[in-house]
Amino acid sequence: MASLRKGFTLIEVIAVLIISATVAIIGIRHLQQPGDLAHDRSCQLARELLQHHVQAYLDDTGSAPSSSMREIATDVYAGRTLPTCPVTSRAFQLDRSGRVRCSDHPE
User: Is residue 8 scored above 60 in pLDDT?
Assistant: First the structure.
């Protein structure tokens, strides 16, 4: 005569927990990636805007601003406050080739 089972074995419970944890880890990883991509994109857009102001300054004066770009912190160009990285709030820098760079989000 067969006995009736009432409940789950320890092995079954452990198997369900392992499968659930694996699915949760995969799901969390996919949720984090769009946030990282959004941060990179927002920084890229801020750099592109500042690059436009640098180019306008170069066109007007014939020379590039300094690496800190303080020359374009006027109402004519970028406004009195230069844009910073929207993620870290660190200042952008102008490299020797005239490109606006972010130390936290390399291209």
Answer: yes
Specify if 9 maps to a domain.
no
Q: Is there a domain that residue 17 lies in? A: no
**Residue 66 domain boundaries:** 22-101
User: For the chain, how many structural domains are there in total?
Assistant: 1
Per DSSP, helices labelled H in the chain are 10-61
pTM of the model: 0.65
**Sign of dihedral through CA atoms 94, 97, 100, 106?**
negative
Rounded distance, CA 7 to CA 5, Å? 6
Q: Report residue 1 as tokens.
A: 């005569």
Reading the block at residue 104, the tokens are: 């936290």
User: Model confidence over 31-85: pLDDT tens digits?
Assistant: 766 677 888 889 999 999 999 999 999 999 999 899 889 999 988 888 888 888 9
Residue 4 lies in a domain: no
